[in-house]
Amino acid sequence: MTTPSQSGVLPAETVEALQRALAAEHAAIWVYGLVTAFLPGAQTAAMEQGRLAHTKRRDATAKQLTGAGATPKSSEAAYVTPQPVTNQSSAQAALAVAESDAGAAWRSVLEFTADSAVRGTAVAALTDCAVRATKWRKAGGQTPSAVPLPGQPQ
């Protein structure tokens, strides 16, 4: 993630969008922790890569918000999944939703900033989330596995 504009100042609407993206990163990390017990060992590497990617993005976003003079929002104690996670299929579905939600939050950042560094970060995050969401949908047998225009409300 790159730093904010040279002055470090971002408009309030950009800060709010980054806070929503940070909240989505917190939630994604939580979901990755939740599903660990339900996925087979063959998916451990993919799960760890996803968790690590969100952790790095969360930390970089918090740093960017601090640099812009904002206090980063903290994570919640727990989050609600769209359906109970009780098996491998529901775990994969929860991961796909977490990735889609994070992608939507980063797409929203694009709508609320003209800062080129922030836009670059948002595009990279949206792309990463879309790729991981597609992989989790495919692993879970969901169709379609790839959605048109990732980050759009479903």
From TrEMBL:
<protein>
    <recommendedName>
        <fullName>DUF4439 domain-containing protein</fullName>
    </recommendedName>
</protein>
<dbReference type="InterPro" id="IPR009078">
    <property type="entry name" value="Ferritin-like_SF"/>
</dbReference>
<feature type="domain" description="DUF4439">
    <location>
        <begin position="17"/>
        <end position="153"/>
    </location>
</feature>
<dbReference type="InterPro" id="IPR029447">
    <property type="entry name" value="DUF4439"/>
</dbReference>
<dbReference type="InterPro" id="IPR012347">
    <property type="entry name" value="Ferritin-like"/>
</dbReference>
<dbReference type="Pfam" id="PF14530">
    <property type="entry name" value="DUF4439"/>
</dbReference>
<feature type="region of interest" description="Disordered">
    <location>
        <begin position="52"/>
        <end position="77"/>
    </location>
</feature>
